[in-house]
Amino acid sequence: MTEQRTAIVTGAARGIGAAIAKRLANDGYAVGVLDLDETACAATVDAITEAGGKALAVGVDVADEAGAQAAVERIATELGAPTILINNAGITRDNLLFKMTVGDWDSVINVHLRGAFLMSRAVQKYMTESKFGRIVNLSSTSALGNRGQVNYSAAKAGVQGFTKTLALELGKFGVTANAIAPGFIETEMTAATAERVGVSFEDFKNFAAKEIPVARVGQPEDIAHTVSFLVSEGAGFVSGQVIYVTGGPKA
Asked: Would you name the residues annotated as active-site residues?
């Protein structure tokens, strides 16, 4: 890289998003660290700056049109034109279909799908002007169907179609779009799932690892490594793909 590129990572206060933000900073990018609560981003930003990197915390609801646009413009002004976007922000509101509320449906669809759309639309201008761009959207193995997650599964499957269409529309501008579908990753979100189903997190992880060919659960860094490749110069011929990072074949 001749000049420092700017990356945006949504949902970067903790878990997978924080690992991605730190990895991209380590790779030499300036990083906009976005999350619903700006103060919650402090740990990620501090870790990056203490390691000699450049980062900016921005609080935003990615599902809010004006908020998403303002966040991107602030990053462009304070860090530089963003040409890398990682749409990672996500929530779960799990329930079986007959118990799921419209609010549970709407909130999950809005954060994952509407949020990815609004952020991508706001950032594509900077990418097309630069004739370089990398969009990585976080899907999930739940896109293949998962009991109790009709909202999340629909959102994550939607992310895959959204990604493939971005690849078709933006390719001629030097912009790639890919999706990563993680399997079991050890985060606060999977810990909350264990609590919801009433088992200890250790037992939950051990059970999951038995079903995974590489015999372990994933770490946020496993996803960050994959992102690092997909946003690199060398990945310019990889676009419109869904990469299942699951420790074994899934799709």
From this structure: 152
